[in-house]
Amino acid sequence: MSRELSEWFWNPNVWLPPNITWADIQSNETVKYADFDDLYYPLPMAFMFLVLRFFIEKFVWAPVGRSMGMKAMRPKRVAFNEMLQEAYRKSKRVSHKQVREMARTLDWSERQVDRWLRLRKLQDSPNKLTRFTETGWQFTYYLVIFSYGLHTLWDKAWFWEIRHCFYNMPFHPIDDDVWWYYMLSLSFYWSMTLRHFFDVKHKDFWEMLLHHVVTISLLSFSWACNFTRIGTLVLIVHDVADIFLLGAKMLKYLKLKMLCDVTFAVFLLVWIVTRLCIYPGWIMYSMYLLDMPPTCGLMPHGLPILSTPERTTIDATYIAQFFPVYYIFNAMLLGLLVLHCIWTYYIFLIAYQALRAEQIADSRSDSSEEVSSSSEENKLPEDAPAATNAATTGDGGATSPGDSGATAVAAGDK
Hints:
Radius of gyration: 26 Å
Structural class: mainly alpha
Helix content: 55-70%
Shape: elongated
Strand order of the largest sheet: 1-2
Number of helices: 13
Strand content: under 5%
Distance between the termini: 41 Å
């Protein structure tokens, strides 16, 4: 049954150009193609990435953070209150109507109820040092992988002329450096997916999870049908902007405001150029309408190619013949573009906040305003109704992800 299902799913009439079978793109003694079994390597490699992440965070970026005065301090636990805890458990964003009703029931002021909820939220938030080290790990990865990707693609013909992504497709040999570029990228995104529910949680939690799933699917499917050249271009276009965003976040944590603002401005420019111009205007457009025009020359295995080299081939229409997987790849590429547009909204919101407040505040961070425990006006009652107020033990710990801190304005990622 599983074999029949696999044969049905991997139908060559769907995944490969006409007249091509999976046997045609099997590696041999003279040429190495992308092998489907290679996709198993990123799974154990993802756990190696998690181990590497632990050491880089603990022994590289944590010392840097501590040397700049960051401390791994946890906020004080708030006294347990059954009613308020239940409201917090159901939703991290309690409405004003609920606050008013709970204040009336508990005989508290609305400000005291609101303060309890904010303190409870802080209790689940990672400290500044934790956020700094997590950002440092991602910054390290993207800087290294972009540098490696640039080194890998610099001498590749398709990096300079995208039509080479479609010439003689899918008979594209895989060099060792491209193999490692793909495997390392897949391993990282697998590790990010595994850690996604435990890392600092932002407002775009589900968008980021969707991004990881789409990216892994796009890389895996493109590898399976040896469509790797366009995949490497998608990777390098996406990696470069993250370096500047993560760098801006780290500079903010280090309180280097001027450098943070400059880096964020560079990020904003790089993001617009790569994600909103190059990605849709160069990569996606090259995939647009993968169909066959009238009579063209033929490449090996009966694949057609345009016979007039002077023609501008910014899309695959004039190079490779249509096949159904076009819809799958373009749907995933379009999904990434939609996410880019959503994140662009957040980015411009950040820029707007920066102009108003003269600081870079990530609108996607689940941040909370500074809470002064010495404020008499906001002080929580020592005694509450017996049915709702517990003793000194708090409920919950500081292990759930969030994004807030003592002076909660935190930068986000991608």
